[in-house]
Structure formats: structure tokens, C-alpha cells
């Protein structure tokens, strides 16, 4: 169980503030660090991995600072975005070198084990510069996992990876998160984050905009009307009835569905079944249509 | 505004959202070449780029001009009858600075685009790869020429100010300038070829240093040994054909511009030197064109 | 001192085209000296060494070696893979320095010994070799430190060697006090008076040691504060 904690961390470069008073804590499981380009994701990851000092505030892993503390690397595995410039090494040699640098007691066995985990045993004998992008990513992850770290930090791991490899990677990360490791990955692609991480940290313009389960975040956004998609036996009647209800802001008919914008979720939820029965309408389906990461994100960024 | 036609297989359409199709006059390839030339020249001195890229060229230029101003000061103040250092000889003495300038700036013009593959953007325009290579070479040549010419101008101005004989000085200056043009073409060619082959900046620099400084050193040493120890004129002059700087000093010596070589260059050697110099430039240009053509067609 | 890092640095140095560039120096030097010896005599050939081999080829090899083991990795940030491990930063710097030093001695100092032996006088050859070893050690540490600081390490180091030591050093004799090449020669002078005597012996020894230790330490210190500042 390892927790990365940022406590009022800020980082500026001259006049540009890249990270502005961010406090968050990353616990076990898979967390997505989400934000548009230039939001400060890479700066945050650099600070968390001990490669950038915060200009203010603290970045600690289990209470110990990460900057200039080489012992923390026993617990951290870092998968940077940078390309490997060790093209002259084979996959196995690269992972083995990483294992040796960690001074693992049985580096050879650890190397083979981790290559199996990332499913790279066969191509491990070939040079790194003959690998495809997805294979290189897997080797990087192998190198970061070879010492069995409690924390895994990945900077934009799905950049340029083809869909099939991406699925493999996501499965791998999910498994690692289920094992209890703290896995943090950054991305600006919503589909990836949505599929992989339930818990997200959103960073916008250097500020920590939101944190938590994105469904929960959505519910916290009470100033935005919630969208629901309703399917019923008589949409039009239901639409006119709902329009009369005070919690409903707007209704619109869309093919088979009825889109409802609701201001006050509580009273709507209580009154809807009664209203439907009153007017002889059977409800077939009621689902939130904007509890997607995309809408959450759009709201946060637009602020 | 064009209306989209309905039905399957609709043709693509651009609505009037501010995009304007340009149907007017387009400037031709000469304009492109001209712009590329001026940009290259400016980049060689770091103009139009970040502050840090100006440091090296201007530092080297300053170090190269400083002794010239000192010489001018001395001449003016002590009323010497002639310049202690001739124009062509001054360039020879500052050859380390000149070579360093070429080694440091040739990668800026040649290696950068190839390494970061922005060459593709250049060649996607109506500018052929050979023309690109030649224009780059021209920019570097002019940049090198300016580097050697500015101290020469300073010296000349000083000579005029202290009232030295106008016609003598002018002949000397013109001869020096002609030699410097040839030198600039050779050095730009050599360092250009090396920089377009070795893409990492550090190694391009070391390569250029080998070709311009180490090779010159070797040639000088052999020239001295051959004459002073071996009494062999032919070898001493002949080996001077093997490096750009020794070609320069040989021709400068032959045209009586105040540069000394172990053995005076005269007779049939003079046209030989000129021909080899021109061939060297031609070979470098061919190399550049071939390299860029290969890279451009990928 | 970390064997894995040293092995990686060695592989980086040997596995590429730059290896041939590194090889070109000793081949050229020995070839030239052998040629002149064959055509004339050893004494004449010897002149190549103090004018070309020692002041130019040796530092160039040191520059090439030092910038190859550290420069490209710091430049594109892939040194992160080596630094995100519980390894002592100074150990990383020293491991890389040892490889650079080895290359400098083998491709820079050793050819000087061989070439000098070809020209005859073996005491003189030993003296020059010792000087080259000392100077090579100090050079490689200095250039390693410069590589850790700036991406223009090669040009900066070249300027030090060519402008400071060669150009200005030939004009002003006082520069001998701050010139690594001169320190090496002074130490070699103890073995054979064929070498010049530019500065105080004690000073030369201390200065060479100081530059070596400080250079390697400084490179390690820079690695401790290595920062990933996002997109280049």
C-alpha cells in the first residue's frame, strides 16, 4: 500500500506557472491523470517521479520526499514518454540492465518473469530498434516492473499505440491495479481514461480541477442540469407532462428517446414514477446521458 | 456559395467559412530560393532564432574582429608605414576561429532539418532537393565570407584612416577578398557535406574539426618536415593540395599577399592549386546534391 | 562505480559509427608518424607529436569520448532510464567517466606512446606518454562535466582546447598555469627534458588532480538535479 501525496505543490518556470497549488493523493488502484495539452500533466508526473523539484509545497511517497531521494526508486517504476535511445540493446538486455541496476538478487529470473507478464518473451532477443511502438511500450513497462514496485507511473502510455496493443496494455494495467499497486497514468484522450480508470484526477491550466470517480464528480456539478435519456410507451405525452414539472429544464424528442434536462435531481427522481403512472405511460428505460467523462471534462475545462 | 448536391457520392465542398481559395499570382521558385537564402544566412548568425543561438557566432566574430581593431589602433597611434599583418595573412592567423565558426554553424543549416525531418516540409514545396542544397550552401558561403571579410574591412578602414598608400592597400584588399571568397566556398562545402551526413550535432562538429583543423595541422606539419628536414620542394608544395586552408595559404603566397609558406608557390603549381580548389568545391556540391536528393526522395 | 552503467556506456561508445571516428584518430597519428619516419627520420617525425598529436588529437579524442557517454542521453532525456533507479548519482558519473577515460587513454594516449616509440628515443616517448595520460585524465573529467551542463558541450570543449590552450596559450605564456596540456607536459618533463618546462611541478600535479576530481564530482552533482522539463 503506497500513497503518493502532493501537498500544495507548485512549479513555475520564470513567469510561467505550470502547476498551481495542487494538492492530491494517489492511492492503490488505477488512477487517470487527465487534462488538456499544456495543463501541466507532464510537470506533475516529473515532480511525482522525483525528476523535478516543486518550487513550493511537498511531494512525498509514504511520507518521504521524492526529490533527490534515490532510495524511493525501489518502490517506484517509471515509464517515461521519452523514446528509448538504447536501440542497440535487445529487449532482454535492456530489462536485464534495469534489473541489474536495481541490484535484484536474481536478476535473470526476474527478467524472464516480467517478460512473461508483458507477453514479450518471444521478441525479447531482438534489438530494440526493430520493435514496433507497442512492443517498445511493453518493454518499457517490463523495465519499470522488474523490481516489483508498489507504484507505477506512466506518462502518456497509449501515445501512438495501435488499438490491439492498447487493449493488452489496458488489461495489464488493470491487473496491476487489482493487485493493489498504485498505478497512475496520464492522458489527454478521454476514451482511454474512461475505459481504464474509474478514479480520475483532472488538471486544467495547472490547477487541480477535480478528483474522484467521474460519476461522483458529475453529481457534484449541481449547477449544470443533468441529462437523462428516457424510453417509454408514449414519449410525447410524457414529454408534455414532464415539461410542466418544476425540476425539468428542457425536453426534446430524439427518435425513440426522450431527452430530459433536469435541474433538481432529487424531486425529479421522486416524482417521475408517479407522473408516469398517472398518465398511463410505461417507462422502459431511464439512463443518465451525460455521466460520461467527456461531458464532465468539457464542463471542467469550460469553466 | 456552392450548394451541396444531394444523393450518394456527394462531391466535397468547402463552405464559405472564411477559407479563401487563392487564384492570384504566385511567386516562383526564384523567390522561394531567395527567401531560403536570406533565412539561412540569418540563421548562420543566430538572427531570427533564440538568444542562445546567437552566442557562439557572435562570440567567435568578436574574437576574430578584436585583434584587428587592436592592430588598427597600434597602426594609427604609432604611425606605422604599413600594416603589421596583411589582410590575407590575418585570415590565416585566425583560421582556428574561422574553422570553429564553420564547424559550429554548418550543423545549424544542414543537420537540423535532416535530423528532425523538417526537410520534408521544405521539399513539399516547389523547390527541388538539389536547389535546396545549393541555396543552403550559398547561405553558409556568404556567412563564412562575411566572417572573414569583416575583420578585413576593419583593417582596411584603419589603413585608410592612418593614411597608408591607397592603391597599394586597395590591391591587397581586393586580392585578399578574392581569396576569401574561394576559401568560403571550400569551407562551406566541406563542413556542409560533413554536417549533412552526420546528423547528431556533436559529431558533425567533431567531423568538421577533423577536416578543417586536424587535416590542416597534418598538412602543415608534413609541409614543414618535407622542406626543413627533407629538402623536398615538390612534396612540400604538393601536400598543400590536400586541405582547404593549405590551398588558401598556397594561393595567397603565390599572389604575393604577405602569407608565407615553407616553400614559395609558383610556376605550374599556381594553376594546379586553383584547379584543385575549384574541384573541391564542385565535389562538395555534388556530394550535397546527391545527399539531399537521396533524403528528399525517401 | 556501477558495472551495468559502465557496460551500457561502453556499448554506446562501441556500437555505432562514432567508433570508427574514434578509431580514425590513432590510425591517422600512427600512420603519419610511421610514414614520415620511413621517408625521413625519427627526429623529424617526432615533431608531429608535440605540435599535432598531443595538443590536438588527444583532447579531440577526450571530447569525443566524454560527449559520447553522456551527451546524447542527457540531450534526449533517455538518461531518465538510468537515473530512475536507486543508484548513486556520483556512481553513475564515475562509471561513465571511467569508460570515457579508458577510451581516451587507449585511442589518445596509447597511440602517442606507440608513435613516439617509432621515432626512436624511448625515454622521451615514456615522458610524453605519462604527460598524455595525466592530461587525458584531466581532459576527460573536464569534458564530462561540460557534457553534463550544456548540450553544446562539444563546441564549448573545443573552444577551450583550441582557443584557450592553443591559440592564446601560444601567445601568452601565463596561460600555461591554466592549461591542462601544459600541466601534462610539465609532469612528463620530470622523465625527459625533451619536454618543455612551463610551470611548477607541484602545481601541475595538484591542478591535474583537482580538475579530475572536481570534474567527475560536478558531473555527478548535475545528475542529482537532473530535471525532466516536459516536451523539448
Describe the structure in your own words.
The complex is a heterotrimer of chains A (303), B (298) and C (232). In chain A, the strands form three sheets. Chain A has a six-stranded mixed β-sheet with strand order 6-7-8-3-9-10, sandwiched between helices. In chain A, strands 2-1-4-5 form a four-stranded antiparallel β-sheet, covered by helices on one side. A four-stranded antiparallel β-sheet of chain A has the order 12-13-11-14, covered by helices on one side. Chain A contains ten helices and 14 strands. In chain A, 35% of the residues lie in helices and 29% in strands. By secondary structure, chain A is α/β, with parallel strands linked by helices. Chain A has helices at 41-48, 91-101, 107-117, 133-145, 163-178, 190-196, 214-220, 235-244, 265-278, 293-302, and strands at 4-13, 16-26, 29-34, 56-61, 64-65, 76-79, 151-155, 182-187, 199-204, 207-213, 226-232, 248-254, 257-262, 283-288. With 298 residues, chain B is an all-alpha fold. Chain B is 72% helix and 0% strand. Chain B is built from twelve helices and no strands. In chain B, 45% of the residues are buried. With 232 residues, chain C is mainly α. Helix content of chain C is 79%, strand content 0%. Chain C is built from ten helices and no strands. Chain C has helices at 3-14, 17-39, 42-46, 48-75, 80-83, 89-118, 122-149, 153-171, 180-189, 201-224. The longest helix of chain C has 30 residues, at 89-118. Chain C starts with a helix and ends in an 8-residue tail after the last helix. Classes of the chains: A alpha/beta (303), B mainly alpha (298), C mainly alpha (232). The interface between A and C is medium-sized, with 33 and 33 residues.
